[in-house]
Amino acid sequence: MSAEQSMVVAEKHRNVGVITLNRPQALNALSLGMIRDITAALLAWRDDDEVVAVVLRGATQEGKGVAFCAGGDIRFFHQAALAGDPRLEDFFTEEYTLNHLIHSYPKPTVALMDGIVMGGGMGLSQGAAIRVVTERSKLAMPETNIGLFPDVGGGYFLSRCEGRTGEYLALTGQVAGAGDAIALRLADFFVPSSQLGALLEALADQPMESGALVRASVVTHTQPKPAPQWSAHRAAIDAHFAHDGIAAIFASLEADPSEWAAATLATLRKRSPLMMAVTLEQIRRARGMELADDLRMERDMVRHSFHLRPGAASETVEGIRALAVDKDHSPQWNPLRVEDVKREDVLAFFASPWPAHAHPLRELA
């Protein structure tokens, strides 16, 4: 087994396939090799009559944080973009294809969303039929923090959150705990982290003749969901984030004297004005799309994120540099102000660089 292959461990336990993301030193961040290994396991088990369900989980390591999956390997994105590495294109095409595979998988998938579940981790888990959170769960789509947008189907699943919470999550990257995740329909069941071992043992060590039995076994280990933490702010979120553009959202928050509005505005002022405008457009468009069309749109967008302004001029490359490479946390966004974002620059992200017959995700149903 190579080092790359060992980052994903796929094992059959009686009637259940268990996929473990095994890169805990990097909070199980996804590499291209991991995406390929997960895809291969799912495709093999899809046609295996012995397997009635699949469990997705993340490995942990003493001294490291707990994570299901903290996202994609953004350092690789940075290096590949500057070097013109074609694997960057492969990464997103194959990741989005995997996201679609999980959403459309014919057998129940169970995502054990313990710890950090962000970015690519949300892409893996949101398509699961059974999404389990714990008291340690931290769900977020923080891509605007690196000058990107909430991809991996983020347009699809965030736009389907109640009210305008999808816009709020997409633009701020706000973290949701277990109670809020269930309330927002981003998770299904709450199981204390101390009980995950027993749940996995029940799933893997007892005969499971059907997906219905798998679901029933999960339900027997659940406990009442924690109270959501955002309830007091829901009306404000819906009011402020319903506005037509980023500048209008800023103006609305500026007119709100509450501490919550001030904190939200402070967060947004750290983000790329251009990519916030792109993200808002994405969420609004995706609300009327099926998943495959949303993923094709996001594939167009991510291509443009690295190529409309190539190399170091890319907002995404600059955002990753500031957050993860130089770690100065001082990205030089272009433009600096939301008022200076041009509509034509936003719309350029939504023009597909491929004709429909040649789109890398053309075969998604």
CATH-defined superfamily: 2-enoyl-CoA Hydratase, Chain A, domain 1
Largest sheet: 6 strands, mixed
Q: How many helical stretches?
A: 16
- The number of distinct structural domains comes to 1
Shape: globular
CATH secondary-structure class: Alpha Beta
Second rung of CATH, namely the architecture: Alpha-Beta Complex
Overall average pLDDT: 95
Gap from first CA to last CA: 34 Å
The low-confidence runs, each spanning 5 or more residues with pLDDT under 50, are none
The helical percent reads 40-55%
Category from helices, strands and their pairing:
alpha/beta
Describe this structure in words.
Helix content is 44%, strand content 10%. The protein has a single domain, classed as 2-enoyl-CoA Hydratase, Chain A, domain 1, CATH 3.90.226. Strand 1 and strand 2 form a beta hairpin. The protein has 16 helices and nine strands. The protein is of the alpha/beta class. The strands form two sheets. Strands 1-2-3-5-7-9 form a six-stranded mixed sheet, sandwiched between helices. The model has no long low-confidence stretch (mean pLDDT 95).
